[in-house]
Predict the structure.
Amino acid sequence: MLTTDSECNIRCVAPGDADALRDIYNHYVATSTATCDLFPRTADDQALWIEKHSENPYPGWVLVAGGVVVGYASLSPFNPKPAYRHTAENSLYVHPEHTGNGYGERLLMHTLSEAPKYGITNVVALITEGNDVSIRLHERYGFVPCGRIENVARKLGKTLALILMQKQLS
Ligand SMILES: CC(C)(COP(=O)(O)OP(=O)(O)OC[C@H]1O[C@@H](n2cnc3c(N)ncnc32)[C@H](O)[C@@H]1OP(=O)(O)O)[C@@H](O)C(=O)NCCC(=O)NCCS
């Protein structure tokens, strides 16, 4: 599925997007607690990620603006046990030089509109404490807080809670 307007389009992720995605993700690995990964994603890791998110029912998408991949979003299994099949964790990342342009919103809207087509009716966001931009963004699109796990991660000298938010799709 493609979302297009005059400025940007969202399409399914492809192997050729690997370098762009790795640049975006590894920036946040190194500089923030938005992801609790501690080590940069390797080229092999990224290739595997793209392979996994090229399959039903947990897709990945990239947002292309001006011919450049400026962000991406994905659905992943919330839990590998089969009874959780209809529930997915969502994720989105926007290139640090392109934040604040509405790309995050577009990626989240796209994720929520596409999810039911993949049999996903429940989307869960796992957001590290302090990521207020992400919390506000998810709230704006109907996610509600549904839990908080205290002191669950340590990164960049901080001990952090994990905030769980959920949106049920009809
Ligand atoms: C969260 C993220 C995806 C938002 O992407 P974005 O393209 O900047 O989002 P948008 O431009 O659609 O803006 C969404 C809201 O966040 C605000 N915002 C964006 N960047 C911001 C910043 N650096 N500081 C404060 N607010 C910011 C926008 O103003 C907007 O709020 P508003 O509509 O009330 O003005 C992006 O900041 C990012 O990739 N962060 C690191 C990864 C991450 O946290 N992913 C989510 C993990 S759960």
In short: Residues 78 and 88 are 5 Å apart (CA to CA). The chain has one domain: 3-168.
